[in-house]
Design a protein that fits this description.
Elements: E1 2-5, E2 11-12, E3 31-37, E4 40-45, E5 48-54, E6 60-65, E7 88-92, E8 95-99, E9 103-108, E10 114-118, E11 123-127, E12 132-138, E13 144-150, E14 153-154, E15 161-165, E16 185-188, E17 197-203, E18 208-210, E19 217-220, E20 226-227, E21 233-234, E22 243-249, E23 255-262, E24 282-287, E25 289-290, E26 298-301
Antiparallel strand pairs: 1-20, 1-26, 2-14, 3-4, 4-5, 5-6, 7-8, 8-9, 9-10, 10-11, 11-14, 12-13, 15-17, 16-19, 17-18, 21-25, 22-23, 22-24
Length: 315
């Protein structure tokens, strides 16, 4: 769950790319060299290696790995193979691009960010350069070292986004009124038989976005929301620096386990609950105040279907 500051921009946390585990993203990084293969360009960065592979005149597959070699693991979703397609390399001040008859993918040489354009140079979608990779340990009988990856893309505020499986008409036990996902978020996890998740977005501008990763994924724009800075959060006692969080076992605030000041309300508890609480059947209450210092408003954003956020006891 997040409490977000609303900004006037549109972001989608998805990708026009293919991400194969254990491939991962790194922070923006300068390109040190570029090599060319029969079907792709490979960009060497300090933090890893980026590949833009031509699959057809309309499809560019983007993969990033932290090492020098791309993983041999095959996609669990893509069964097709690349078609032989005419393409060429474009070198210009500040970027190098892969170009086909219909689309081009440019890599910013200073940041490693990728932008997608039509053959005529009209923007389709672009990374913001705000990529991140965080080491994670997956819980279980045998813990597994892994990564969580995130990438932000700027999209046209006038476009509509559709897809993601069955979420347009049904989300868990409740109905959804959203057909356009431009300003909402959807949590993708195959945990209900009536919720089939497909990490594919289709834009009203005529392009598709496919995130080739079977892991739990959150796709959403939240209208460009970002967490409210801790300096604008005040606890129940009026102290600045965060809201007062009370953590209980039980879904109805049954037994208080701990109280602490949370400097930022930006949590993901689907797999790992708050420390000291069981995996299921717990509740958290935050009290205090929020100082709004810029226009646009504040909203509560919940990515997780099994959570019930409320404000002043109103859901």
């Amino acid at each position: 769950m997040k409490i977000l500051r609303h900004l006037m921009r549109a972001l989608i946390c998805a990708a026009v790319l293919s991400l194969l585990a254990p491939a991962c993203f790194a922070a923006p990084d300068r390109v040190s060299s570029v090599s060319q293969n029969p079907d792709s360009l490979v960009f060497h960065l300090k933090a890893g290696t980026l590949r833009l592979q031509v699959w057809s005149s309309d499809i560019i597959r983007e993969t990033f790995t932290a090492g020098d070699q791309f993983p041999a693991a095959k996609s669990l979703a893509v069964v097709g193979t690349p078609t032989k397609t005419a393409w060429h390399k474009v070198t210009a001040p500040g970027y190098v691009a892969v170009a086909t008859a219909n689309v081009q993918a440019r890599v910013n040489l200073a940041t490693g960010a990728v932008s997608y354009l039509t053959a005529a140079g009209k923007p389709i979608l672009a990374e913001t350069g705000n990529k991140s990779l965080t080491a994670e340990v997956l819980p279980g009988a045998t813990p597994v070292a892994s990564f969580s990856s995130e990438d932000d893309f700027l999209n046209d505020p006038e476009e509509d986004l559709f897809g993601l499986g069955e979420h347009q008409t049904h989300q868990g036990a409740g109905q959804s009124d959203h057909l356009d996902y431009r300003a909402v978020s959807v949590h993708l996890e195959q945990d209900y038989i009536d919720n089939l998740d497909i990490p594919l977005l289709v834009s009203s501008k005529g392009y598709g976005v496919f995130w080739d990763n079977p892991a739990t994924t959150t796709v959403g724009s939240a209208s460009g929301g970002e967490p409210i800075p801790s300096a604008q959060l005040f606890g129940a006692d009026g102290a600045p620096g965060g809201l007062t969080g009370e953590y209980y076992t039980g879904q109805d605030f049954d037994t208080l386990v701990k109280t602490e000041q949370d400097p930022k309300l930006d949590f993901f508890w689907t797999d790992t609950p708050p420390s000291g609480l069981p995996h299921d059947h717990y509740s958290v209450r935050w009290t205090g105040s929020v100082q709004v210092i810029e226009g646009g408003g504040v909203h509560i954003h919940n990515d997780e279907r099994r959570r019930r956020p409320s404000l002043d006891r109103r859901q």
